[in-house]
Amino acid sequence: MIECRDLVKTYINGDVETNALKGVSFEIKEGEFVAIIGPSGSGKSTLMHIIGALDTPTSGKYILDGHEVSSLNDDELSDIRRTKIGFVFQSFNLLPRTTVMRNVMLPLLYSNTSEKEREQRALESLRYAGMDESKKNNLSNQLSGGQMQRVAIARALINNPAIILADEPTGNLDTKTSHIVMKTFQDLNAKGHTIILITHEEEIANFAERVISIRDGVVESDVVKKL
User: Fold this and answer.
1) How far is CA 92 from the centre of its chain?
2) Cα gap 188→149, rounded to integer Å
3) Any idea what the Cα angle at residue 190 is, between residues 184 and 193, rounded to 5°?
4) What one-character-per-residue DSSP string does the chain give?
5) Are 164 and 189 contacting, i.e. CB atoms less than 8 angstroms apart?
6) Measured in whole angstroms, how far is the alpha carbon of residue 130 from the centre of its chain?
7) Domains parsed from the chain with CATH numbers
8) What is the end-to-end Cα distance of the chain in Å, rounded?
């Protein structure tokens, strides 16, 4: 599903060049649950931006679902993000004074679907993400951190993306809630979803079946934890 071939990313600020990625290569198959782990400054965030079609590499190739993403323009990258990738962020990125349902339906705002269909798909996504349906009319700022993250997961699922890309999804949660959220990702993976988790926490990375460690812009290790 994903092929990263010798990815290089160089940032230039005046006369200063920073090599964030220095020839990163790996593949991720459909249905895998992969954690990409590394300390601050390791290049994992840069890699996340490339995998999420938020940026393109300086050189190398990124192929997603048979399409080469590394050379696409902004409009084409936007289309890839809309149709192929569901994002889950550390800060949840929910609209605070908006209902759970409206937050989940947000990616369908400009789609050619009726209000009834959007509501039906939102309810299905909430159930799929393990969110209590009775909370559907609550405002998002009335929810706990774990509930907000489940709503964010439901929103990521609503377009049935090929990949769920989770960027430090437990960074604002306590340990117990973090484990509940990670169990949700494991359940989604068991149902066939491809999940890529970006984290700096080894304990969180261990919920994945495969861990790719990045340091100083290169892949340090790539370990399958269970078969």
Assistant:
1) 12
2) 14
3) 85
4) -EEEEEEEEEEEETTEEEEEEEEEEEEE-TT-EEEEE--TTSSHHHHHHHHTTSS--SEEEEEETTEE-TT--HHHHHHHHHHHEEEEETT----TTSBHHHHHHGGGTTSS--HHHHHHHHHHHHHHTT--GGGTTSBGGGS-HHHHHHHHHHHHHTT--SEEEEESTTTTS-HHHHHHHHHHHHHHHHTT-EEEEEES-HHHHTTSSEEEEEETTEEEEEEE---
5) no
6) 18
7) 2-224 (3.40.50.300)
8) 19
With contact defined as beta carbons under 8 Å apart, do 3 and 63 qualify?
yes
Q: Are 82 and 110 in contact (CB under 8 A)?
A: no
pLDDT of res. 66? 86
Tokens of 77: 């990258």
Q: Which residues of the chain have pLDDT under 70?
A: 226-227
Identify which of 3, 1, 47, 39 has the alpha carbon closest to the alpha carbon of residue 22: 47
> Can you tell me which residue has the tokens 């990670």?
182
Q: Strand 33-37 and strand 194-199: pairing?
A: parallel
Instruction: For residue 227, give Cα distances in angstroms to 64, 205, 208, 224.
Output: 24, 16, 11, 7
